[in-house]
Amino acid sequence: xxxxxxxxxxxxxxxxxxxxxxxxxxxxxxxxxxxxxxxxxxxxxxxxxxxxxxxxxxxxxxxxxxxxxxxxxxxxxxxxxxxxxxxxxxxxxxxxxxxxxxxxxxxxxxxxxxxxxxxxxxxxxxxxxxxxxxxxxxxxxxxxxxxxxxxxxxxxxxxxxxxxxxxxxxxxxxxxxxxxxxxxxxxxxxxxxxxxxxxxxxxxxxxxxxxxxxxxxxxxxxxxxxxxxxxxxxxxxxxxxxxxxxxxxxxxxxxxxxxxxxxxxxxxxxxxxxxxxxxxxxxxxxxxxxxxxxxxxxxxxxxxxxxxxxxxxxxxxxxxxxxxxxxxxxxxxxxxxxxxxxxxxxxxxxxxxxxxxxxxxxxxxxxxxxxxxxxxxxxxxxxxxxxxxxxxxxxxxxxxxxxxxxxxxx
Length: 410
What we know:
Order of helices and strands: EHEHEHEHEHEHEHHHEEHEHEHEHEHHHH
Largest sheet: 8 strands, mixed
Shape: elongated
Number of helices: 17
Strand order of the largest sheet: 8-9-7-10-6-11-12-13
Number of strands: 13
Radius of gyration: 25 Å
Structural class: alpha/beta
Distance between the termini: 69 Å
């Protein structure tokens, strides 16, 4: 059975030489000469080819496109004089522009699908990823993610806070940061080329004084197409190598599983959120204790469990106004889902003051009952995922005075 090959090359001279090599190779047949990546992907999805020869200079070839080719079981041969760059994003074979070795690559290589390496393996132990999710209705996802990151920072740990909400990103506004430039979008673009390293990711994050590092989300919701799934996974793996803790606000919507079969390489509105949940070590599901909030929470949590079956799952009921209300809501969740929820007391005055000042609630009031409850939740996560606390290290008296100073952002 002959190997069916399609080509997609940037210039006519190179295409002529590739066609000559392919047609003169035994047991290899050229079935399609594509003009661009769009046509090439259409040919692959129609199951017409077994291998593709693409030009490294062709626009649109990145990690996510490569992942699509390999998922379909197609042999990928890239024509480029920079083999390391293409091997990093999943190319199986790379030949120089002189085409030396192209015939051997097509004649002797079996078509075996291989997973795309998302990131170079980081040294152990790698950091933990905590995803904060909640159903629609503003249950307090961003506030909880910010306070969890602040709590981990107070335990003398380096934290990366990521705003992955594609419907209503707000972490930058809540912390008083400039959101015109998205560090997350820049990190995903770098990861799509296979060159994202921990140092580069650290340079894209904004450091909040006396707080976590923040990877600012999308400045506009219509830019969700930039967050491709494979590249987002690469950013998360790079974050593991960069810091011991990563807290991600994934937003509310996680639909799209029924559409992924259409075109695995095309962007999906909530594909980045699904990829983060699937790779998270712990998932915090936050909801409100009122009847509407509980109904939404109970309906959506099974979807989260299906996406992240191996993650440590905790339910957090936010804005609990009365103990009786909290106990009744907690009993309902325990009966239906078999999960013991964490109760986060309502503290509207301190939360509103923190938002107005662009700070975390713990900076406005260290004695807030909400801060104390979140500290207990973080302590539980540290015990389950492995504590990264630096025992015995406490800030000096002068440092504590600076933490309380009104000038600490300068």
